[in-house]
Amino acid sequence: MNPISDQAPGPRRIVCLTEETTEWLYLLGQESRIVGISGYTVRPRRARDEKPRVSAFTSAKIDKILALQPDCVLGFSDMQADIASVLIRAGVQVTVFNQRSVVEIFSVLYQVAAMVGQGEQGLALIADIQQQLAGIAKAAAALPRRPKIYFEEWDMPHISAIRWVSELMGIAGGDDCFPELAEQSLGKNRIIADGAEILRRNPDIIIGSWCGKKFRPEQVVARTGWGEVRAVKTGQLFEIKSADILQPGPAALTDGVAALHRIVMAWSQAHG
Asked: pTM of the predicted model, to two decimals?
């Protein structure tokens, strides 16, 4: 890992409060700029060994962050507004992104790349990812029938897919059972108040990605009335790790969508 020189453009001491910016800076070969990361970071795995963990998602060790003397802190969403506010008052430069769609994710990736003087490399990596997505979409377009997918981000209460996950399901060849909720940026606005509505929409596939805990398909099967759902009858219940799909960055656009596509293609071969 080469140190960043004094002549290098952009911030040289970056704290990443969420995983996606950490993963992206590593992919850009700019990991030496990172001085602190989120405790939830698992991509890339080596970041946990190389960088101090200074935050959760809605809380952070402010004193530890300030001790690192960052010249830039990168965050995500309104959920980190309180952390950002404290750091800004302490004189720290903070950039909080609020990407919710696939297009917005690509926009943030470019912005971060440009911030560290890697705009061209960022565009090249983005083009590679977009080409992969186009290949998946082309394969999905040939499917004789698209499965209806219920993506569960949380179990109690039921929270359905955020926008980028809904869009990636579409690219992968499936249709979100709750597309109208995907437009809601906040999790509290994606709560399905009436669980019976999930049964009425009768998904072909159920995918769980319970942020912060393991998906338990046996608990889903045991829910009252769920035995009549097509996905339960045919055993189409799957987990995609939240680190692979619920981070609005490279992981969702690569491993996350690939996992969705594998599930949809296997369903199509068996039931399509």
From this structure: 0.94
Q: Which residues contact 124 (CB under 8 A, 6 or more apart)?
A: none
Answer whether the bond into residue 44 is a cis peptide, omega within 30°: yes
Residue in this structure with the two tokens 């995500």, named with its chain if needed: 76
pLDDT per residue over 129-151, tens digit each? 999 999 999 999 999 999 999 99
Burial of 54-71, coded b for 16+ CB within 10 Å and e otherwise, reads: bbebeebbeeebbebebe
Q: Are strands 159-160 and 148-154 parallel, antiparallel or unpaired?
A: antiparallel
241 and 213 Cβ atoms separated by less than 8 Å? no
Question: What is the Cα–Cα distance from 66 to 49, expressed in whole angstroms?
Answer: 21
- Tell me the C-alpha distance between 98 and 14, whole Å: 18
* Most distant CA pair in the chain, distance: 64
Q: CB burial class (10 A; 0-12, 13-18, 19+) of residue 111? A: middle
Tokens for 74? 């990168």
Burial 254-264 (b: 16+ CB within 10 A, else e): bbbbbbbbebb
For 166-200, how does the pLDDT look when each residue is reduced to its tens digit (9 = 90+)? 999 999 999 999 999 999 998 999 999 899 999 99
Task: Give helix 102-115 / helix 163-172 axis angle, nearest 10°.
Answer: 110
Find, among 152, 149, 165, the residue nearest to 263 by Cα.
149
Of 200, 199, 227, 205, nearest to 271 by C-alpha is 205
| Residues forming a β-bridge with 148 | 175
Rounded to a whole number, what is the distance in angstroms from the first to the last CA of the chain? 48
User: What residue type is 179 in one-letter code?
Assistant: P
> Which two tokens mark 252?
């969702």
